[in-house]
Design a protein that fits this description.
7-stranded mixed sheet; globular; alpha/beta; 23% helix
């Protein structure tokens, strides 16, 4: 499995992008920075997308991607009902953007699949398990498994006392650290993590599973970036774990 961070920030500029992860060139998790990261030819290879929740920085490029593929084939979209309803109401509504329901050239541009937390499904040869996360809107993370290797993207989340870790044993954990630890109380109000609250999460994981997975931290607010990366380095030493901050173009291969 080849995992590439297309976007790893809670912000967008010439140099950084909103959240988007590409797996083996064909499967995408979140669309915050997918079209702005890829050539048109690379976009042609995408077959399915897993969307974690309806916040703008996780869905921004989805209309552009769907439109690009419209005359080529259907784009398979997997998300919870709340996310689908928001996307259809505010993006694909025939006003802001085409609904993309009608077949053109034999293809429906969008094929929607509702997912349920805890119920695994198969897509493109991967086993995918949605996991309910603690955030300000209904949100799921995704555990993606194939050939004995797995990656878990925890999406946007606050600290919830770690009940989630009981059934998750990923080789790679991609999890947010939106703000520096100096803003931990502020981050908690918006259900986000800092390196300080991440420590609590990772210790909870270790208590349940007996190991620390390789951890890449994303959804970094650019104004907090220097402090976050310094604090993550300190946390890695403190826990004796592989914890690093993600960046655009970062690749991990199983």
């Amino acid at each position: 499995m080849r995992v590439k961070l297309l976007g790893s920030h809670q912000g967008e500029s010439r140099d950084v992008r909103f959240m988007s992860i590409l797996i083996d060139d064909a499967l995408v998790i979140d669309a915050g920075g997918v079209t702005s990261s890829l050539t048109l030819e690379e976009q042609d290879r995408i077959e399915a997308i897993l969307v974690t929740h309806k916040h703008y920085d996780h869905i921004k490029d989805l209309p552009a991607l769907a439109h690009h593929l419209w005359l080529t084939r259907s784009l398979q979209i997997y998300c919870i009902e709340d996310t689908r309803e928001a996307l259809q109401k505010y993006f694909f509504n025939g006003d802001i953007w085409p609904q993309m329901k009608e077949a053109i050239g034999g293809y429906h541009a969008l094929t929607w699949h509702d997912v349920t937390p805890g119920e695994a499904f198969e897509v493109l040869g991967y086993r995918v398990t949605p996991v309910a996360m603690e955030h300000t809107v209904p949100t799921v993370g995704y555990l993606v498994e194939r050939d004995g290797w797995s990656v878990y993207y925890a999406a946007d989340t606050g600290s919830d006392g770690n009940p989630r870790w009981g059934g998750i044993r990923p080789d790679l954990l991609i999890i947010e650290t939106t703000m520096s630890s100096a803003y931990d109380e502020f981050a908690a109000r918006f259900k986000h993590l800092t390196p300080l609250s991440l420590e609590k999460e990772l210790r909870g994981f270790h208590e349940k599973q007996g190991y620390y997975p390789r951890t890449i931290c994303v959804h970094i607010n650019p104004r907090h970036e220097q402090a976050i990366r310094r604090e993550l380095s300190e946390l890695a030493v403190k826990l004796g774990a592989d914890i690093t901050g993600g960046f655009e173009g970062m690749v991990v291969e199983a």
